[in-house]
Amino acid sequence: MRFIFADSLDTIDPGYDFLADRNGAGRTIHRDDQYPHEFLDDAPYDGILVSRGIVGDARHPGKYSEAQLMRFRREGARRFLRYPETRFPGSMMMGDCGAFTYRNLPAPPYSAEDTAEFYADGGFTHGCSPDHLIFDFDEPGADRSITDVPEDVRNRYEITLQNAAEFYHAGSRLGGGFTPMGVIQGWSTASMADAARSLADMGYDYLAIGGTVPLKIDQIRRVLAAMRNALPSRVRLHLLGFGKIEELSALEEFGVTSFDTTSPLLRAFKDAKKNYWMRTPSGDLSYYTAIRIPQATENNKLKQKALEGSLNQEDARLLEDAALKGVRAYAAGGATLEQGLDAVMDYWAALNWDEEVSPSRRADAAAKQRKVYADTLTDRPWEHCGCRVCREAGVEALIFRTSNRNKRRGIHNLHVFHTHLSEFRQP
Ligand SMILES: [Zn+2]
């Protein structure tokens, strides 16, 4: 099972100065920054997915600046991402249209022809047909037929199939180095199985299942089972945007060839608790909560408190500084756990001060949080991981603060997840 990382310009500055909280001297954006596969000793994924929606174009801006967009089109995806086939042999360079970014339009803004052109310019090895998201999903037994669903759903289904038919021909002209992938959308397991059968009949032997992001794992299981029943065994399956990565066994059971996700990276700073990943000796994923020490001068919550007059910004800055020093001193062996926690929790109390809340509830919340942070600090997980993030950044990667720490922690998570997946593959 291959893990494809959906990139969204997720780079870090390798020269970032944690003590001064600033970029390395003379750093140029992108040129001096590093992608996870450049920063770590080994690439933490088997391929990269780039969405047209993220790259953008003149009519539909994405995340790339105009200069980056031009360079991407001129140099191709591999050079832009510094992910050459020679260094990463057999890796996938996959493209899709990023259907979520245009979900509210009546039709995709891209045609089969210009999508194939985008993949050709980018030197992609795999590319998806331009699909249109369907958000409905029938409960078991409801299975509406195509005449029972709303017109919008029917249109999206037909557009996706029509585009796939045109894209198969446009993509086939790109030659043997390119594998066109037909995207499946549907509102039920039956409609998705029908779509899969149609795509296989068009000639596709690699299909991508879309629209599964809001689905629960048992719904995904039903979709995969229906797919496997409908398709000849030669047809490979890719799951687009698979977030439920604790459920890898479902993918393995139904012979999924590949999936893409950003979850390990994103959860480092979007999850409330599961920020730093580890594997237990028995081979399961386990998690630690990162210690939140936001920048006092940048934090909106603190700015608001300063405006209300409930917290002086200078006081906040001193608490922030003490919290950072407390954690660092503990990590270096110059302070006890309790001393480190005291400093962290003093800042936490200022950040979370709410005069509407009773003193006893405040104390309960603080005790709970202290326990969570104590778990993280007591185990010193940064000392048990050999990845470059943990070797170089140490406890800084466990501090929830600024993109360079948060993304480093995400890159560590990618490393842990990729290791987990490769061990998982073992019989
Ligand atoms: Zn690590």
Automatic annotation (TrEMBL):
Pfam families: TGT. One of its GO terms (biological process) is tRNA modification. It comes from the Bacteria. The keyword Protein biosynthesis does not apply. The keyword Metal-binding does not apply. InterPro entries: DNA-guanine_TGase, TGT-like_sf, tRNA_ribo_trans-like. Residues 150-268 form the tRNA-guanine(15) transglycosylase-like domain. Keywords: Plasmid. SUPFAM superfamilies: tRNA-guanine transglycosylase (SSF51713). This is tRNA-guanine(15) transglycosylase-like domain-containing protein. The lineage of its organism: Bacteria, Pseudomonadati, Pseudomonadota, Alphaproteobacteria, Caulobacterales.
